[in-house]
Structures are given as C-alpha cells and as structure tokens.
Amino acid sequence: MSLQSAITVSNLTKRFGKVTAVDDISFTVQPGELFALLGPNGAGKSTTIKMLTTLLKPTGGKLTLAGHDVAHEQDKARQAFGIVFQDPSVDTEMTAYENMQLHAALYGVPGAAARQRIEELMTLVELWDRRDSLVKEYSGGMKRRLEIARGLLHHPAVLFLDEPTLGLDTQTRNLLWDYVRRLSREEGMTVFFTTHYLEEAEAVADRIAVIDHGKLIALGTTPELTEQTKTKTLEAAYLALTGRTVRDETPSKGDEWRARRRARMMR
Amino acid sequence: MNVIYVLWLRQIKRFFRARSRIIGAIGQPLLFLIALGYGIGSVYSKAGQGNYIEFLVPGIMAQTVLFAAMFYGAMIMFDKQFGFLKETLVAPVSRFKIMLGGALGGATTATLQGLLVLCISLFLGFRPHDWALVPLAIIILGLLAVAIASFSSGIGSFVQDMQGFQAINQFIVFPLYFLSGALYPLQHVPGWLRLVAECNPMSYAVDALRFVLIDQTHFGLAKDMLVLVISVCGLVMFGAYRFRHIEA
Known about the structure:
The structure holds two protein chains of two kinds.
Chain A lengths: L6 E10 L2 E11 L4 E5 L6 H8 L7 E6 L2 E2 L4 H7 E4 L11 H11 L4 H14 L15 H13 L5 E5 L7 H18 L2 E5 L3 H7 L2 E6 L2 E6 L1 H8 L4 H9 L10 H13 L2
Helix pairs in contact in A: 3-4, 4-5, 8-9
Chain B lengths: L1 H16 L1 H28 L5 H31 L1 H6 L5 H29 L10 H25 L3 H17 L12 H8 L2 H14 L6 H24 L4
Helix pairs in contact in B: 1-5, 2-3, 2-5, 3-5, 3-6, 3-7, 3-9, 5-6, 5-10, 6-9, 6-10, 9-10
C-alpha cells in the first residue's frame, strides 16, 4: 500500500457527443493526502469524480484506486472508496440508523462490526441521539453529517467529497472539515474533494489541482500555485488561472430538478 | 443474499410507513369493484352471463397487482431524482442483485395489495369456488407481480421524470389492462379484439386467476402458467439489462 498511490489518473478523457467534458488529464494522489480539485462550473470536476467512482465510463484513459483498475476490478475499486455526493443521496423515508445498516449490508460489513462502527461514527458526527428519526426530519447539515458517517462506515481507503459544504453554515462547515482531517490523520485515509470555497481548499488541502474546460491547468501546493501565478492568495492565483468570465453550465434535467430541491432543503 | 434481503426490506418498510399508499391500496379497487360490479353487473346478468362481481374480482386483483407493481418503477425514478440510487450504484454489489432485491420488494407489496382485494371482495359477497386453491392464486399474483415489477424497473431505469412515466402508463399499462379480459369475457368479443387479448400476457394472468378462483377459463391453466413463467423470465432479464446500463 505504502508504495502505490491512492489514485492515479492517466490520460483520462470523457466526451459526450461532440462536447469534451474531460480532456486528457493525468495526476496522482498519494495515500493519506488531502487533495482538492478546483474549477469553475462545468469545468469537468463532477464528471471526473463520477468516472473515478464508477458511475460513468471514461471515453479514454486509465484510472486506478488503491491499486485497483477502476474499469476491470470494479467491485474492488468500489470497496476501496466512500463518497459524499454533491446532492443528498440518503433515503429520507427511512431512519438514519436504517440508512447506515443498509450501507453496511451493501458493503458486506458483518453485523456485530457494523453495529459498533455505526454507533462510533454516528456519535462522532453527533447524530447518535437522533438515530431513529426519519431522515426527512433532518436539516441539510445533519443530512450531510450522516452522509459523511455513512461514507466512512466500510473503512474506505479513499473518501470522495463532491462539494460537501455547499449550502452549509460556517459552524457545520468547520465541524465537517474537523472530522475529515481527524479521520484522515487517524486512519491514513486519502481525501479527494471539490469545492467552490477557495479558503477551504487553502486551509484543508495538501495539494490542489485546477481544471478548466476539461483540462488540468495547474497542480501544486498553495505556495506553489501563488508563486507560479505571481499572486498573493489562492483566490488570486485561481482567478489568474481560470479568468473572470462566468461560465454557462448546461445541466441535465435531473440536475436542475435536484438543484431546486436542494435549495429548498438546505434552508 | 443479504443485499437482496435489505433492499427487499426497504420496500416493505417504506410501503407500511406510507399511509397514503395503504389507503390507496384499499380505496381504488373498492371503487372499481363497486362502480363496475354493480354498475355493469345488472346489465351483465340481464344478458344471461351470471354474476358479474364474481367474474370481475380476479380481474380487479390482477389490475391492482399491475398498477402496484408498476409503481415500483416510479420508486426507482424517485430514487434517481432524490439521489439514493447513486448510493446503491457505487456499492460493490452486482447491479442484478440490487435490481432484484428492490423488484422483489415491490412485487411483495403488490401481491399483498392483490390479496387485500380478495379480502375486500369477501365483504361484497365473493366466495372462491375452492378455498384450497387460494394458495395457487397467491402464486399467480406473485408471478405477475415479479414480472411487472421487473418490467417497471427497466422502465424506471431510463425514464427521467414523472411525465415520462405517465406516458408509459398511458401507452403501455392501460392497454395491457383494458385489453386483457380483466373486465369482460373474451368469448364473445370481436375477433380482432380477441387476437389482441391473446397477444397480451396480462390476459393469461387474469385467466389463471379466474380458473383458480371461480373455475372459469378461456385458455386453460397450463397455457396460462406457461405464458406467465416465460413473461417472468423475459421481464427479469429486461429489467436487469436496463438497470445495468444506468449511468448517473
């Protein structure tokens, strides 16, 4: 484990018809690293995460997760990661505990170990007292915390967080990053995340990759990126790299519907 | 196995927690039985055909299972929209098990709803001609439910929104129901209509139920069961195939 990288992306490409969403990108993430992927809306961040997490098939290129080829050892790769999606993915009509149990069953965590781990994680994210509430009674922040606890249940080697703090208040955001950092430190877990909050990336990430128009345009630590662009802050560096124009994203029908729903739920 | 079980259980729990679905499960067939049973029943007996409610009950049972099992496809679509589907799609489990667990759960609740119709009909004076054959009726309902729930899994896998799903209901499910002989005997209908009904797998489920419950049959039980089993196999394969190709 120590010699192989946690994530390798080689010449990854994804085309939807004539549109190239991800254009020949390559990078590696080391075990235990906190790695941020930044980019404007529609730059290809979510598409990259979807390919890394087996939800989309790449048009070209190769991906490995914890040493497993994502295309050919799909189940091993799936066992190796946990994910908190950009949009809620809990079953709101079931209780928080039932959601955790279902996840344990999906990942083959045996009963006794699952019970212990569920209690541990739900205590950590301060939801143990509310374990028997239906998730639809949870606030947006509570749902996010539950999703993080769930993503960690099967001891993944890599945790993906796709804009995990979107729509959360400052307190919840700080709390969330505290958990993530702590778990990464204690369990040697690799964390791969996307965010639009640059101060988060600056504070949390060991290294930062910037993509735009599907191409990887910069990769390094915050000091490296500011030096490269001759700027003082990560935000200035990011704007120097990606420009100031606002991007158009063409969401799918489902995305639009979810965005509206999310706006309603994240009160 | 464990995966199939938990996904099955999820459907069962969600059904019993949704009061509206249980009320609907009682209300809709009751309305059909009363409105059609008594409304058309008087004309039916004047035409010398006997007791229409007795004839109708197996048809309404099949109808209830059809609509209830189709609803499972809408659940997949909701899971897609509410995001839960992704949780199952990235899990290290074969898509076939995921599809099968949910579909069996949907089929179980649909079968229960079909049986509920039988219970309701007892209050309207319906009696099966032989109680010993009722378990066979449950098997028939179950097979129909698995076939339709698998079919609706396949539909739910590629339909994007509720409008799309409504269109499927209008163009596939309603014809399956109205052209199945659930509401009228096939003996005296025009030849073209009988031909359509003979091509409709739903007709065989209705006919099998009628044989078991009221000792009337158009095709014969052997042929009914053969068509039913073939439909189950074909539609499970269809559902599994479509479900495997979901990309989020």
